[in-house]
Design goal:
The protein has 17 helices and 19 strands. It has about 500 residues and is an alpha/beta fold. α6 links the parallel β5 and β6. α7 packs parallel to α8.
Length: about 500
């Protein structure tokens, strides 16, 4: 069957033809890709096409598809049974492993999804603090739990607005949302609601509006403010947990949250979620406490086996994280030399933003050029490259990816865009004093550097002489006869050390 016929058949029985909206490729003028199997860094579709996968089940598969360590662990468990609805030793082993690796987690409860983990964490925070309000951040996604489906837009909104129909206004009236990376908004909202805030929940590195890097000291400020006003700090590490390191984002940034939500990687490709944290908060859960949570498949042995195999492999091979980070860093460095589109990256995660401006929050992410994204996504699919089918999502690599895989991405983008020279002209202190030239960027249509200098001489009324400029093109010293193209970026930089 073709992808079109697969989709038409699915739409007869499944709402929208998919079981999660982003899989539908809505607005991209493409049918969803129906997958037959995966292996290593590749996906293989039902129409026998191969795709280099940078989505990896939305970050779940850090070891790639069908890693033998995971497959062997699952096979052994399957022979014993798929579900018992009773405790297993595997659950204890998994819990002990996570608690040992992540110091902030003293007790843990396994659930079936990241959404369920967040639901449980919010209830725990409210029960523990005897408060009701929750503070989140614009663009951070915490599953489809009603109080989390709130967008405040730009700045703090006094009137809550849901991102989904079917939600009672009273349910979201206790949820506040502010821009990420805005410390003034953070301080203001926490101070104004300090006696009523039960929890602050955050993706420490947001990955659902593309990768957003927290500003220096931002997470530390959040921890200090929540401790000061006795607000439960919840880190949603469903994506970053065991992705940015064995200790997740909290280890990378040296922040100890009160509660942590986990998912994806800890299931090794199977449905899973978990909430863990301080013992005094976790003991609010039934059967010890009065916060009720239950699930038939919670702690399912197949998911526990796959997740435990994955984590143990990562633990036994700690160099994995530095190797993946190096591959992504080299890719980002080369990207910045060749293309104008913004790219954010951390660890083994990256996002290409379809804008030339910095992206530090959800508002910035929303300024992207969707038509450009759509056109490039279609071209990449045609070339066998699968990036997430949304410009608000994050791309990932696995242990099965190599530098060559990311070089392919660079090579393809090079065919989509005409490369521009990045020309840095460093002027001398003498020229700065004589002509008042200051740091600026121009887009030139000059034929070469010498012609550009002629233009500068006229603009600043000086005569070009030796030693006034140093010309660096794409990080290399160049001669005055270096050719320029229309649209090349020319940046004037101030002198170094007065000279």
């Amino acid at each position: 069957m073709t992808q079109s016929s697969n989709f038409l058949e699915a739409c007869k029985y499944i709402v929208g033809g998919v079981n999660s909206p982003v899989r539908s490729f809505k607005g991209l003028d493409l049918n969803p890709i129906f997958i037959d199997y995966g292996h290593g860094p590749y996906l293989f579709s039902t129409d026998c096409k191969q795709y280099l996968d940078f989505c990896l089940s939305w970050g779940s598969l850090i070891l790639g598809h069908t890693h033998p360590v995971v497959i062997d662990a699952v096979k052994k468990v399957l022979l014993k049974g798929t579900s018992f609805g009773m405790p297993t030793v595997l659950e204890t082993q998994m819990a002990k492993t996570i608690c040992t690796i992540m110091p902030s987690i003293e007790l843990i409860r396994f659930v079936n999804s990241g959404t369920e983990a967040v639901m449980t964490a919010i209830k725990l925070a409210r029960a523990f603090t005897k408060r009701e309000k929750i503070l989140k951040f614009d663009g951070c996604y915490h599953g489809h739990y009603d109080p989390m489906l709130v967008s405040a837009g730009s700045g703090v909104s006094e009137l809550p607005k849901a991102n989904s129909s079917g939600i009672d206004i009273a349910t979201i009236s206790k949820t506040l949302s502010i821009p990420f990376n805005d410390i003034e908004a953070l301080e203001k909202v926490i101070f104004e609601n300090k006696s009523s805030l039960a929890a602050l929940i955050i993706e420490p590195v947001p990955a659902n509006m593309g990768v957003i890097i927290p500003k220096n000291g931002y997470l530390k400020a959040i921890r200090e403010l929540t401790e000061k006003y006795k607000i439960v700090l919840i880190f949603d590490e469903v994506i970053t947990g065991f992705r940015l390191g064995l200790n997740g984002a909290q280890g990378m940034f040296n922040i100890k949250p009160d509660l942590t939500c986990l998912g994806k990687i800890i299931g090794g490709g199977f449905p899973v979620g978990a909430v863990g944290g301080r013992k005094d908060i976790m003991l609010q859960l039934a059967p010890v406490g009065t916060v009720y949570q239950a699930g038939t498949l919670s702690g399912n042995p197949v998911a526990m086996a796959a997740g435990l195999a994955t984590i143990n492999y990562l633990k036994d091979n700690p160099d994995i994280y530095s190797r993946l980070e190096k591959i992504v860093k080299n890719f980002v460095d080369e990207w910045k030399l060749k293309f104008d589109l913004t790219i954010n990256a951390i660890g083994s995660m990256f996002t290409i933003f379809y804008t030339q401006k910095p992206v530090e929050n959800f508002f910035h992410s929303q300024t992207q050029d969707f038509d450009l994204f759509k056109n490039i996504f279609i071209k990449l699919i045609e070339k066998g490259i699968f990036l997430p089918p949304s410009m608000y999502e994050t791309a990932f690599i696995s242990t099965e990816h190599t530098k060559n895989d990311l070089d392919k991405l660079i090579s393809l983008f090079s065919t989509f865009f005409k490369r521009k020279k990045i020309i840095h002209i460093r002027y001398t202190s003498m020229l700065q004093e004589q002509c008042g030239i200051s740091e600026e960027t121009v887009y030139t249509d000059a034929l070469n550097v010498a012609e550009l200098f002629d233009e500068l001489c006229k603009k600043y009324s000086f005569r070009f002489g030796c030693g006034m400029f140093k010309v660096i093109i794409n990080d290399k010293m160049q001669s005055l006869t270096s050719k320029l193209q229309d649209g090349d970026i020319v940046t004037f930089l101030p002198p170094i050390g007065g000279g």
